[in-house]
Amino acid sequence: MTLRAENISLHLSGFDLLRNVSVQVEAGEVTAIVGPNGAGKSSLLRVLTGELAPTKGAVSFNQRDLNDWPVEQRAQMLAVLPQHSLLNFPFTAHEVVALGRIPHQTGTLKDTEIIDQALQLVDAEYLQKRFYTQMSGGEKQRVQLARVLAQVWLPCKEGEQILVLDEPTAAFDLAHQQLTLEIVRQLAEKGVGVVMVLHDLNLAARCADKLVVFDGGLVAAQGTPEEVLTEQLIDQVFGVKAMISRHPLTNKPLVIT
Amino acid sequence: MRRISSAWLLATLAILLPVIVLYSMTVGTVSISMAEAFSAAVDRLFSSADSIGQTQVILFDIRLPRILLALLVGAILASTGAVMQGLFRNPLADPSLIGVSGGASVGASLMIVLAGGAVESGLLMGLSLVALGAFVGGFAATILVYRLATSGIGTSVTTMLLAGIAIGALAGALNSLLSYFADNDMLRQISLWQMGNLSAANWAKVWIMALVSLLLLVSFPRDSRALNALLLGESEARHLGIDVQRVKRRLIVLTALGVGVSVALAGMVGFVGLVIPHVIRLLIGPDHRWLIPGSAMAGAILLVVADSLARVVVLPAELPTGILTALLGAPFFIALLLQQRREV
After folding, report:
1. To the nearest whole angstrom, how far is the Cα of A174 from the nearest Cα of chain B?
2. How is B145-164 classified by DSSP, letter by letter?
3. How many angstroms away from the CA of A105 is the closest CA of chain B?
4. Which of A4-13, A146-155, A189-198 has the least mean pLDDT?
5. pTM (2 decimals)?
6. Is B50 exposed, middle or buried (0-12, 13-18, 19+ CB in 10 A)?
7. Does the CB of A10 have a partner CB in chain B at under 8 Å?
8. CB-based contact A73 B241, cutoff 8 Å
9. CA distance B85 to chain A (A)
10. Over 90: is that where the pLDDT of B162 sits?
């Protein structure tokens, strides 16, 4: 029970964004959050990462209340990739990824090694010396992904690590979508817990150990992709008639609309 | 635009700065050669007090404090400019955005109008009433802006920018009002003060400025990495383990102090805080670990050069330094912008 939200309600400027939501993110597992626009997916991520305090309920992280962790220690264990980045200063890709090493005291030499490997992993080595402000949307997002990967690159002795990704594949082409999901799987095998918002149900089904389906601020269903993805649920939550089949190679559920 | 190595730039500036300071010693209404200056320095160090000549007085009681004040004010304006641009994630921000300059000029004008002719004679430890008014005004305006932008959930950078603009407009109106009621002599003093002038430098002012500069330049490096992280956005910085609220508060207070004291001692010297960090960033990139010291040295150089020119361009009279910083800085900045536009 690495990162756990218990009976979370979030009430913000007159709206109930989340109602009695309980979600657990385990180390070594990939949890995907899906649901229609405005269902509360990003709100949940913001509560899970401590950006918003829930109106009711509590979030615990590595057996402590999330807010009890000193900020620096928390940053060694919890990395967050936002959907958009505000960065508009001409850092190079290398410098952006280096920001991910700020919480750690591993020394320049080790950091440089990690930064190079992280850039290589997201297929962004060739961007090393290029300016962030001059990159394409997909390139920027890959560099940001490398930054959060660098942040949880080495295990932390304080506790289990969690990586939070908000629609990581939105700006990516097909090849880089696949690459991202592979990276996420590898990371989970290394023991990091991953929680991410995804829009593509098939990507989610292929990659995630657990799906959490949101609808109108409530958890409509959670469980393994096989349990959760049913024709009835998709009709109920998304209002779309779909057929559920099986992927011929992975045997994972395949949503056909 | 291609970058140059930050180590190389810092080394160049570090060599250039003392050379320019030494050269500046020889520049002024009375021309003193390097050799004369050197022998006067030796005399000053090794002979008794009663043999002080005119050259020595010019060099050590007039020029040196003035040059050092220019150096320190330039360094503080430029480094606080770099800090504010990072904190506001806006390359066009400068210390005046948080209300320091506007508040300071109201404080100064108020003192000039209230105290009238007593202003220049009422010296207290070398700090005139005008300087005190400017400092209090600048600091009060900053605190007002900061309070306006701070709510239960933290300080909003956007609200702070807007509040700074509003307070700036208010300060402008108050200034005009004071100018309207001022007589001719006061009006001239107000406008001279607003142009920025280092001619009233003395050792007391240098010491005050040196203490403040030391505090700022020792404090800034420990927040350099936090400023780098802040360029990503505030919540991203928080996720990187930065105590954003504390860093913001510390940097705003230090900036208000530094700029408040600078403006109080040297008047309104515009342009340095905006342009110098921008130029240095174009040259070596936005990493604050190098940007802040680079800006400090380049700002010091610009202000020492501008002040040297101010002493000689309209001999035997002098120009206010603030006019020259803008005259020197603006074309350079425009050239850089054009070059950047061509390369994008």
Report:
1. 27
2. HHHHHEETTEE-HHHHHHHH
3. 12
4. A4-13
5. 0.88
6. exposed
7. no
8. yes
9. 10
10. no
Mean pLDDT (whole number) for A15-41: 91
Show residues of chain B in contact with A50, CB under 8 Å: 238
Quick one: pLDDT at residue B344?
Answer: 53
Q: CB-CB: which of B91, B241, B285 is closest to A74?
A: B241
Residues in chain B: 344
Q: Which residues of A touch B225 (CB under 8 A)?
A: 102
Touching A: B residues 258-287, CB under 8 Å? 281, 285-287
Instruction: Give how far B221 is from chain A: nearest CA, Å.
Output: 14
Q: Say if residue B128's pLDDT is above 80.
A: no
> What is residue B125's predicted lDDT score, i.e. its pLDDT?
43
Secondary structure letter of residue B220 according to DSSP: G
Please judge whether B285 and A92 are an interchain contact, meaning their C-beta atoms are less than 8 angstroms apart: yes
- Distance, CA of B54 to CA of B58 (rounded, Å): 6
DSSP reduced 3-state for B90: coil
Predicted confidence band at B122 (pLDDT cuts at 50, 70, 90)?
A: very low
The pLDDT score that the predictor gives to residue B183 is 84
Assembly ipTM:
0.91
- Mean pLDDT throughout B59-79? 92
CA-closest candidate to residue B145, choices B196, B87, B191, B212:
B87
CB atoms within 10 A of CB A168: 26
pLDDT of residue B111: 84
Which residues 218-237 of B are in CB contact (within 8 Å) with A? 225, 228-229, 231-233, 235-236
DSSP sequence for B223-282: GHHHHHHHTT-HHHHHHTT--HHHHHHHHHHHHHHHHHHHHHHH----SHHHHHHHHHHH
The tokens of B147 are what? Answer: 């309070």
Q: In this structure, are residues A246 and A253 in contact, taking their beta carbons and an 8 Å threshold?
A: yes
Domains and CATH numbers, chain A: 3-256 (3.40.50.300)
Which residues in chain B touch residue A103, judged by CB atoms under 8 angstroms apart?
A: 240-241
Nearest to A71 among B232, B241, B285 (CB): B241
pLDDT over 80 (residue A30): yes
Nearest residue of B to residue A147 by CA position?
B240
Mean pLDDT of B271-282: 89
Polymer length in residues for chain A: 257
Q: To 10 degrees, what angle do helices B321-343 and B272-284 make?
A: 30
pLDDT at B117 over 60: no
Task: Identify the CATH assignment for B6-42+52-343 out of 3.40.50.620, 1.10.3470.10, 3.40.225.10, 2.40.40.10.
Answer: 1.10.3470.10
